[in-house]
Amino acid sequence: MQQEANAILELAGSAGITTLDTAAAYGDSEKTIGNALHENGQDFEIITKYLSLDSYMPVAEALEESLKRLQVTTVSTYMLHNYSIYKKKPEILLEFEQLKKEGKIGKIGISLYHPSEAIEIIDNKAKVDIIQFPYSVFDRRFESVLPLLRQNGIMTHVRSVYLQGLYFMPPEKLPGAFSSIAPKIKKLHQLSRQYQLPLGALLLWFVLSNPNVSQAVIGVESLKTLQENIDFSKKELSHQAYRELQNFRVDDEKIILPYNWPAK
Question: Which helix (H) or strand (E) holds 109?
């Protein structure tokens, strides 16, 4: 595992990728990245996240533990792992602001699931630099607030671009709970063939083509998946293809939010 992580970061650096997104809650991710950075002698902008599960841990203390695992002295961004932490304790951002003043973190972020949460962040004038949220060809809920976020100087990092692989499933093999979107999945596969582009490239470039999206966060499970995504990023999406993809919006949150998916 460590050997492949080293190879992944080496390939990422050579491909011009500058930012790594991780979290204390992602198993041994921070430790593995820290070891790879140390062994490879590389330098990335690192985003990691604060998550206090059972009892409150001071933000500075949680950050120090992350820094030790990552084997760095600062991170480019420290994020609240979810909105519920902010909702329960809005003043927690004051602890983040202190760390920013001390130079321990560069930016303050928060991970969201719903546009209403972004609106509340803006209305409260919360000192947040980056908001991360799900966005894809199907999941377009945040599009209405993207210009507002930009107007308020908030960077947008989007995740779930591939909706946990749902787009890549053969339409005829979709579980019954997803039968309603089988025709859309089929049409996406047809567009991929029509434009002679990998489906992943269509999906990735759809979100990157939105001028209000700052960065896309892509999960990497192996050296192979990283190389695939690097290849996807080198493709170009035509204006016609982008216009066609605009028609794939799905508003059913039982489909577009994986935490609502039925247990296997």
Answer: strand 105-111
